[in-house]
Amino acid sequence: MAETMRMRVYGKHPTCASLTRLEERRSRRLALRLDRNRKPDKPEDFVCYESSDDEEETVMEGRQYLKTSFNFVDYVRARETNTKEVRKINQEYGSRHILTHDLFKEYPITLTNMNKVFCSQWLSDRQVVFGTKCNKLMVYDVATQKLDQIPSLYGRNASTNNAATVEQQSGIHSVQINPSRTLLSTGGRNCNEIAIYRLPTLDPVCVGENGHRDWVFDMCWLDDEFLVSGSRDTKMTLWHINNELATASDKADVPKPESIQPVCVKECRSAQKVRALVFNKAINEIAALSLNCYIHIWSAETFKQKISRKLPACQENVCLAVQDGGVYAVGCRSYTLLLDARTLQPIKKIPSRYTGCGIRSASFQGSVLTIGTGLGMLMFYDVRAQKYLESSINSNRTVVLKASKGYVFPDEEFMDGVQNVKYTPAIYTHCYDASGTRLFTAGGPLPANFYGNYAGLWQ
């Protein structure tokens, strides 16, 4: 969980330098080595050898281990006193421990008459921003449980006569924050435009016009100034929000959004409706997912399309996630597909544990893949162990979070009669806070013609 290189205060060694620790470590390594050297009845197809198997522990390694404390209390104290002790912590330990020990509890959030939450992001440790199908950009305060609506931005071309009505608006499908957390990008009042807000005040900065002719489905930041958006018109658009533009609203008494034009607009070849975008920082590439079951790779440096690959037997692929180590996760109707980012070859097909369970959202929290489904459940897959996360309380079952019903119109009894199954909301979006110990989930009814919403905070 945590490692801290302790510095001695007095004497020759720090308090954690006990020789019994070294003896216990050597006995554990010896037992592990004997277990690996034991020949199995059936040879395994894949065997991994570590360098430590053939080498004895050196004196320097033993001294280094004696000075290292794995106590979380030592880590916290070193951080509080800001000492020069080298320390590191496993960021995913908290969320993994809470999940496997069934400590998450849902606190439902009432959203009154809003329709389907499509996207969300944590603004801070107490605020969550999310966008809805009814084109509302909302901020939820987890401490006071209050909701505030942020005014939608519109460009110069919008007027009273040609502005999209509520019935014609497709909703806000994406909310993204740049790496320095100074700007927020989302959809504008016109579903073909993008809107940029300054953080943490959420003052309007600019509106991106003439980049798309159809709904903007997703966007991703390349750095603090460059943004890429993908649309239903199969276009990929590059935007530049420079520092002068981002800080201009600070000087104005009443912030007013500027209008910006795209740096570059290109068609995503072999694509039909760009549905999801992610930026792979490890190899500096943009991955785009289209509804005709293709994944497309673009160079982030030149903004040119490099590869398009047909996904094997995918249906309803609507979500895409990337792991820091370079693995893509594609959510489909009945399974989640893991792809090698370097070759786009399928690594693993993760079948859903429930029939008719469409994958609607996906995200990586370290080595744990969180999967939001169309049946109101969240599942958790351990990529390293190659299996669903198992409960430490009951080893016979996997970790699953079941969402509450939220609000739906027509009512639940009517929907139960129409679908012949018990109504559950679809999890269209979920996001962890910076600590990984709180999870925001939201969505609504799966049928497009039904009105309703769901939101919950797990902590």
Automatic annotation (TrEMBL):
It is found in: Cytoplasm; Nucleus. SUPFAM superfamilies: WD40 repeat-like (SSF50978). GO terms for cellular component: Cul4-RING E3 ubiquitin ligase complex; cytoplasm; nucleus. Pathway: Protein modification; protein ubiquitination. Pfam families: Beta-prop_DCAF12. It comes from the Eukaryota. WD repeats lie at residues 209-249. Keywords: Cytoplasm, Nucleus, Repeat, Ubl conjugation pathway, WD repeat. Residues 102-458 form the DDB1- and CUL4-associated factor 12 beta-propeller domain. Belongs to the WD repeat DCAF12 family. This is DDB1- and CUL4-associated factor 12 beta-propeller domain-containing protein. It comes from Cotesia glomerata (Lepidopteran parasitic wasp).
